[in-house]
Amino acid sequence: MSSVTLTAKAIRRSLLAVAATSVATTGLFSSAVIAADEEKVERIEVTGSRIQRQDMETASPVTVISAEAIRAEGFTSVDELLQAQTSMAGAALGSSSNNGSDGVAQVDLRGMGSQRTLVLLNGRRMVNSGSGADSSVDLNSIPVAMIARVEILKDGASAVYGSDAIAGVVNIITKKDFEGFQLDLNGSSTSESDGETGEISGLYGFNTDSGNYTFGAAYSKREGVIQSDRDWTEPGYSSYLPTGSLDGMVQDGAGSWEDRSTGYDYTTSSYYQTPNERYSLFANMVQELDNDIVLTADALYTKRKSDQQLAPQPASVMLDVCDSNADSSCVTLTDAMTDAGISADETGRVEYRRRTTDAGPRIYSQDTDTFRISAGLAGELDINNGMNWDVAYTYGKNKAESSVANSINATNLSESVYANQDEWFSGDALTSDIVDDISYTDNADGGNEQHVFSAGLNGDLFDVSAGTVAFAIGAEYRYESGYYNPDPVTVAGDSTAAQQDATDGNYDVISVFQEVSVPFTDKLTGEFALRYDDYSTFGKASTWKIGLTYEATDDLMLRGVAATGFRAPSISELYGGDTGSYDYLEDPWGNEQDSQILVRYTSDEDLQAEESDSYTAGLVYSPSYVEGLSLTLDYWRFKVTNAITRLDVQAGLDACYADASSSSCETFNIGANGDLTNLTSSLTNVGSQDTSGIDFNLAYSFSALSLDWKINNDTTYLLNFEQEGIDYTNMIDGNFGAYAEVRNNFNIQAGQDDWNVMYSNRYIGEMEDLGTGDDVDAVLYHNIAGTYHVSEMITLSAGVKNFTDEEPSSVSNGSDGGTVPEVYDTVGRQYYGGVSVKF
Prior knowledge:
The protein is mostly beta strands. InterPro entries: Beta-barrel_TonB, Beta-barrel_TonB_sf, Plug_dom, Plug_dom_sf, TonB-dep_rcpt-like.
């Protein structure tokens, strides 16, 4: 048996390998290097496989983002650094998501949806988190201060990790095996003197004769940026006016009624960057016990307090019009009103709209607590060359309290209008008594809980002529639950916001899995994985993976993977009830006055699992005649069938408008003559996705002019993105984000032992506006950064992001400010700096 201590093995086991010769590392995200000689490099686990191996080369492409690169680029949140990757697309929620985000931050690999990217912490599942019954991990729960590196597996991995890994895996590795004390201070501000961020963190660790203990704490705060504070922001235009309108008409100065000709600018109250405050505690330990058994554990607690702000509530109520038989709960149409053409509709009602500025802007607040602890035992069996066993338990819990200040009770508003018709229709400011009567604070609560038990065995099976056949087998039990309780006013449908039902449900799954690595020849190795999952909801799922690596020469390695995958329906998809959503849509009948139209979202307890096929094929080329140069090229394709989706509502509207007998009219509950009162979007298993592209990376390290240089370039070229049969390749839209054909990150560094400077740029190619067909301009962001090691104790860093203050491209159906904040930089030039002191 190896003479290396079990403690050392456990520490290395907890570190996921960085495959310098087989991963697509960008210059912006240079790979960490595990320095050890051949004798000390035991078997280690690589992201994407449970087989521990001595080499770090696998068939699957992996991108590694080191802690040093994260700090050098001034990233203060995990979502920010991930969304800068060229492999990301769509519009993942993050710091720039103001409307409907609940303050969460997510990752969207390949633009396939955050629910199709699995997030791991130290190789084990992270509890879903957010406002309750969530389908994805809130990356805000993981502080940047605790990250040693982030590994992104850009390949389908359901056969290894189970559900949700359709598009790939993000594995966040925390700092451990740390000795000493380190204090970090970091901050930033925009060139407009707003949007400040600040972070302070501490890390303390010590070694014992048989283990290591590492502890950390972090506090961060981010200030907001208002949309109208940017010169490029065009004023918003809403039909909901602070003076109110009746049947689309307003009073003029003389008391007569006329058609509304002005709109309300909502950009003065809405954020481009949302405020956020976080407190985090984390710890890691490795302890050798008696009988050569090693105990490993990590714990994390994060409290997030976040806010979003929207313009005052737009209130729309249908008021009964008085006639000879009406009771007192009605409005009387004056002669001036009837002379202007205001009249009751066929139901005897008239619509009244008002922007309730008297109550103030809608302030969305969240207070979330996320806790996770994972512990495991590991050891060796003296069989063959030695086999490793492990058992582990992971528990995660997330709970949240959320509120919306200055919400409006529609029922009370209607009654107030009936009782105070002159005050409401005059166009003057409302009295404080009326405001107090109609406004309230909407309160909700929710949460998620997770239990995971796992056990595994891996090692060598037997030797063949080309090497050793290795294996990994294991089993897992996982329980997931979630709930969300909206405010009773919202549940009852009395709010001017959309009605919403409560969510509550749970499921469990039992899984078994196996992997085998077979060296067919000295140059050709095969990797095979098979997994079986049994869910308490939809039933059974089986997935497989086949990977091949071929060392064509000492300089060139070829690789390829074919795999199947699945995603189980989430708790909110199964048990979510009905929820209203104001989507950006175009009414082809012209009945609606605004682009935001109420759509009723429904769930379904009978949903089945999504299914997927994925393929990657590529090469890694490190020419011996150019020292320090490495090239990677990978083709990838993902196909999802039986996808859980909501059909394209806009396409349904257009189809129903073109043909009143179309099935779309019934599918979306569109009434006669374009009546959208009951417009509905149901979850169903008829969706599909088909996306493919090419990733290219160049990395070159060399010395010249007495300096050490690093040049890196990372490119993703999107060949195709189709969803539900609609081609969104190179399209952008406010509802689903961007699918640019070309995204590119370039980075060049130069320095010596004590200092380095870096220039990087990020390119998002030209796209087509889905709504208008117009060209949307390409954007190139420039960044400059530098690091100086004052001494062994003190390190300083500073930089500028978006140095040339590039403006975001305009999008006709932009979700906010006429653009897509999740895609483009909407806050402008930012200055940042930091100091790190280690004792």
